[in-house]
Structures are given as C-alpha cells and as structure tokens.
Amino acid sequence: MALSRHHHAAMRPLSVKEISAQASQFDFTPHVALQKWIRAAKMLLTEAAICEQDGNLQMAYLYLVRHAELVLDKFPLHPDYRDPLYKHELQEAKRHVRHNFERLDTWRPRLIEQYERFESSMERRRVENRRVEQEREASRSSTQSSSRRPSMFEDDFYDDQGQSLDAGDDSALAVDLAHREIRRRDATRQSTRQAGISPATVASRRRGTVELDTDRGGYVDARLDRRQDSRDSGVQEAGRHLQDDSRQGRANLIPARRSAPSRTYDYPAVPAREETMDWRMPSLQPSSGRRTLDGPPPARPAKDQHDAFTPALPPKQFESYSRSGTATPSPPPPPTSDALRYTFKPSAYTEAGDPLRTVMLPPELRREFMNLADPNTQRNLETCGILCGTLISNALFINHLIIPDQKSTSDTCDTTEEGDTALFDYCDSRDLLVCGWIHTHPTQSCFLSSRDLHTSSGYQIMLPEAISIVCAPRHNPDFGIFRLTAPPGLPAVLNCHQQGLFHPHAETDLYTDALRPGHVAEGPGLRFEVIDLRKS
C-alpha cells in the first residue's frame, strides 16, 4: 500500500486500534534513495495537516502514526541511515514524531467517541433490519411491506457526513468548492501574518514541531507511562523506538499485512488528439467566464536517472505573476469550510485495486508552461516544472506550477541541488503537496523515457496519484498525462539498478494514460499560480 492513500470523508469510523493497524500497512523499498523517503515523510505531515483542517481527524491520525512508523521503524533499515549527510534531517524527523504524540493524545478521545457512536448506530440498524424482516415475513402478500424504512442513514452521525460526488462529473462544483476553500485558507494564513507569525512557524506548529528544545528522552518516557492503557499500540511502539534501536523491536511493531483487493482498472491507450495545441501563444488572457488563481509561477521536477526527484525552495525573492486573469479579489471567506459538506469519490483504481483520488488539473496550465518553456524549446532544450496543489474534500487540486532552477539538454532536464531544496522549502511553508511534474520533448514524441520513468517513480512514492505530463509540440498527440502502473511499472522502476543514461526495462506496460476514465480530470476555470525559481 502507498504511503499516501485515498480517504473518504464518509468512510466508516475505525477504532484507534484499526487506524494504527492500517497505518502500518505500506510498502517500503530500501533501494530508493533515503532523501526521497525523507521527503515522503514530510508529505505525510502535510497531508495530516490538511486532513486536520478539513475536520478528518481519523485520516490525520493515521498519517501521523504512519509517519512515526516510517521514521522510527523503516528508516533504520535503509543502507544510508547512518550516513552523516542525513543526520540532521533524521533528527528533525524524530522530533516531529515526538511532538506529534501530544496531538495524537488529544485526538484519541474524539476518535473513540466517534467510533462508539458509529457502533451504536450500527446496532440500531441491525435491530431495525430485524424488525423490518419480521414485518415482511408477517405480511409477505402485501407489496407495501416490501419497502423498508431508512434507518442507519437517518442517524445523526450520517447527517454530519458530506455529500458524495464525482469531481470529474461535477467539475464546476469542484472548482467552485476549491476556490472557496483556498480563499478561506489564504485568509487564515493572512491573519497569522498580520499577527506577526511567520508561515514557517505556522507550518511547524501544524506538524507539532515548534518546541524543538524540549527534553527528549524523559518526554517520551513520561508519555509512554501515561499510555499503558491506550488502545494505540502503534504509537506506543513508535515512542519506544526513540530509545530502543533493536531490530527485534522494529519487527514486533509491524502487524501482519492484509492481501490487496483484486480489483483492477484499465486505462485506455493515449489517443491521438484531433487538434494540436497552439503552444506559442502570447500569455493567456482569461475569458469572461474563466478565472485562474493569482500567484507566483510554479517550478519543475528533476529528471535524475535514478533519484530524480522534486526540488525544494530556498529563501529568496521569487518572481511571481498571475496566469489567470485580473478578476477582482473577493472579500475574505467565512471561517467555516464548505469543504466539509462534500466529499469526492475515488475516480479510478490502480492495477492492484487501490483507489485513486481525483486530480483536478487546470486546462490552461499546459499552455502557460509551454509559453515559459518556449525559449528553450526553440533551442531544442528540455524544460521541466513541478505540479503542486492541495487536498480538498478527498480530491487533489493542482493550483501551483513551480519552475525550479534546472539544467537542460536536448534530451534531459535536471533540477539543481539548490533548486531542489528551494522547491521543497516553498511547498513546506505553504502546505503544498507535490502532485507530479511536467516537461517538454522539443524534438521527440509524447512518451516517458527510461529517465522519465525514474523521475516519475520518485513522485509516486510520495503520492500515488502523482502524474507526469509530457508536452511534445511538434508531434500528434502533442501532450500526454501519465502515471506508472502499480504494478508492474512502479515496483519495476523502483527496483531497477541500471546506471545508463537511457536504458531499456524488461517489463512491459510500465505506464498508462491517466486522463479520464483515469483519475485525472480537467477543471475549467481552476485558478493556479506560476512560481519561477530559476536563477537565469
């Protein structure tokens, strides 16, 4: 199971023990660079923060426990775990775990109460079903007796759950909901700035890591003493690992895994598009009915042969500009979130049967990216950008295109080390999820090369819904939106040790089209920001 996962706001409440058991069920591959796993751990904290904002404490709890499992149980299994290069980041990750214990303690009683309410409603439903069956048996000849009264779904618990929708079929509603929620979050962020609290401090508080100087060993001991009767064995064991590095202790932490569902989902082949896009248009002017998110321009991912991953963002003055028009800004939204009223269903499934959340993509984003890439395209040089967004009501909305500092050739494009750092710093400070990457093939057709496959695998480690967009302006089709199959594509690429710049893979069907009927839907009018972090 992937680190990040689909979660349904109206899914049945789980016991704390069940949540902790599910948190332990994810795949870890030591062959993947430790730096990628460290970034994946940070993404778990971001998803937990977003789930908490949406009121989904069950998934926030799961992500924090999973983060503890990854940091304390899996990281020590990596061959580079004791490399001094990662010492600081690993220490920081452990501090995240330690300080998140308090939040888990705070949430646990609420989750227990929610689960007990659910169990009570289920018991009422069983009683009601038995009564209806008895009535049906007593008056089998009457057609009216066959209609059963709603029971469980009129319970107060279910009245509180959001309406379930399909983000692709209800794209106008999805886009409007995203705009409202993003404005609400921006207003909250603005209020913290006015209070003199930096975005970095807010992000740290959400992750439970502000008090970095608290005593360490004693803190864990005291918390574990108070948790002797807790149902959350996963967190107890995680805390114990801060002091116990024994391999046996780690083995005992991991529960038996459940077999994955057999359901599969087949994507169609990439179709030839009837019309190619006019990439070289002047900067897009929105139509009267379309609005795009005002903000800095986005960045681009690295195409390292094995460890190409998304870049991070260092402190600097960013060149930012809006790509979505000049709509008059709306007044600050109310503090309550409309996102709580809706939840978007999974739109597709991996080849292993795991659900994929819908990814909403602004249709104008490709053209904006190609306008930025045009100088390189004219010189037959590749350009890449990073797709970033946020999670709203169980759907991912891409609202940032980040262009990191990068080095390009006619066949490759790699982010620089500084560009990588700057990208992730930027995303961390704004609670952005890295949703994939976009890059050009100035002379080649629309496909994922072996280098592209390794780059894409890094993004899908962090987020199973992560996508790879290829723009080939001189060919038809002139673009494609892909994801690695899971399996066989993702595990095959992650376990590939070939060192050549371009190399063949023995496996077939390594990637597939992700556009509908896949998990990616275009959201006309979805606003986005472009962040250009290139130094030249």
TrEMBL record:
PROSITE patterns, per the entry: MPN
Necessary cofactors: Zn(2+)
Molecular function terms from GO: K63-linked deubiquitinase activity; metal ion binding; metal-dependent deubiquitinase activity
Alphabetized InterPro entries for the sequence: JAMM/MPN+_dom, MPN, STAMBP/STALP-like_MPN, USP8_dimer
GO cellular component, one term: membrane
Domain of life: Eukaryota
The keyword Protease belongs to this UniProt entry's keyword annotation: yes
Record-level GO BP terms: protein K63-linked deubiquitination; proteolysis
Domain MPN: start-end pairs: 359-490
Mitochondrion keyword on record: no
Region (Disordered): 123-168, 184-341
Low complexity bias: start-end ranges: 140-150
Keyword tags: Hydrolase, Metal-binding, Metalloprotease, Protease, Ubl conjugation pathway, Zinc
Compositional bias segments (type: Basic and acidic residues): 123-139, 208-248
SMART domains noted in UniProt: JAB_MPN
Family as reported in the entry's similarity comment: Belongs to the peptidase M67C family.
Name the UniProt record assigns to this protein: MPN domain-containing protein
